[in-house]
Amino acid sequence: MPANNPHQSFHFRVEAGFSRIGFTHVQLPRMERDVIRYREGSDPVDSVRQLPGLLRLSDCVLQRGVIPVDHEFFQWMNTVHFGQAERRDIVVSLLDEQHQPTLSWRLRNTFPVGLEWSPLDAQGSGVLIETLRLSVEAMDILAT
Q1: Top-level CATH class of 12-39+58-143?
Q2: pLDDT digits over 61-73, tens only?
Q3: What is the Cβ-side half-sphere exposure of residue 100, based on CA atoms within 13 angstroms?
Q4: I need a labelling partner for 117 at 20 to 30 A (CA). Which of 10, 54, 67, 126 fits?
Q5: Burial of 84 (0-12, 13-18, 19+ CB in 10 A)
Q6: What's the mean per-residue pLDDT of the chain?
Q7: What is the Cα 78 distance to its own chain's centre?
Q8: CA distance 11 to 24
Q9: Helix, strand or coil for residue 125?
Q10: DSSP letters for 32-85
Q11: Taking 50 as the threshold, does the pLDDT of residue 1 lie above it?
Q12: 26-63, pLDDT tens digit by residue?
């Protein structure tokens, strides 16, 4: 019988068509649905009906340590031009103790909208982190 313990968040895999998938942090998109407020003038009820509207997804954020000669984020960012972008589907999978996916999020038609690096610090001892922010058109949650 499987345990009813919550999943731990530190064991995950990102499949995005990159040659290296060593991500340190993934911020999955937030899902939020618009609310449409509607009322007819002849409606005898004195309240407003609320209808579900469009689903909106926030950006996905991927972070990883910068290594020499790996500029795939920068190259992908440069493919975006007015009205056109190289879109990719990305799958983020939460892994169990046997490194098998237990829950996955498929982010569809993503493209880069932001790229930044952590500060350079001559007195620090941290790793230089590269952060890519992706626009997400749709998301599926897949239980395995």
Answers
A1: mainly beta
A2: 999 998 887 778 8
A3: 4
A4: 10
A5: exposed
A6: 89
A7: 19
A8: 10
A9: coil
A10: EEEEEEE--TT-SSSS-EEEEEEEEE--EEEEEE--TT--HHHHHHTT-BTTB-
A11: no
A12: 999 999 999 999 988 888 888 899 999 999 999 999 99
